[in-house]
Design goal:
GO terms for molecular function: 2 iron, 2 sulfur cluster binding; metal ion binding. Helix content is 57%, strand content 7%. With 74 residues, it is mainly alpha-helical. It has a single domain, classed as Arc Repressor Mutant, subunit A (Orthogonal Bundle), CATH 1.10.10. Helix 1 packs parallel to helix 3. Bound molecules: FE2/S2 (inorganic) cluster. FE2/S2 (inorganic) cluster binds next to loops.
Length: 74
C-alpha cells in the first residue's frame, strides 16, 4: 500500500529500506525517500510501518546471532 502519496513511497519500500539499507529513523527515511517532507499526512503511518519493520529486523537479527541454548547431556 502507498504510505506517502506525495513521494510515491509504499510500505514495501520502507521495509526494504530498513532491511537492505539499514534505515532506522524517520529522519533517514525522509532524507532518502522524502517521506513526510511535503504535506506530512503520512507521518504517523510511515512511523508505524518503520517501527514495525525495525522491530522485525532486530528480532530476526537476535534469533540469527544468539547461540543455541539447548544442551545435550548424553
Ligand atoms: S503523503 Fe507523505 S508528504 Fe504528503
Amino acid at each position: 500500500m502507498y504510505v506517502c502519496l506525495c513521494k510515491g513511497v509504499t510500505d514495501k519500500t520502507i521495509r526494504r529500506a530498513v532491511n537492505d539499507e539499514g534505515v532506522s529513523s524517520m529522519r533517514e527515511l525522509r532524507q532518502q525517500y522524502g517521506v513526510a517532507s511535503q504535506c506530512g499526512c503520512c507521518k504517523s503511518c510511515a512511523k508505524q510501518v518503520l517501527t514495525d519493520a525495525v522491530k522485525e529486523r532486530n528480532t530476526r537479527f537476535l534469533e540469527e546471532t544468539l547461540l543455541p541454548t539447548a544442551v545435550c547431556y548424553t
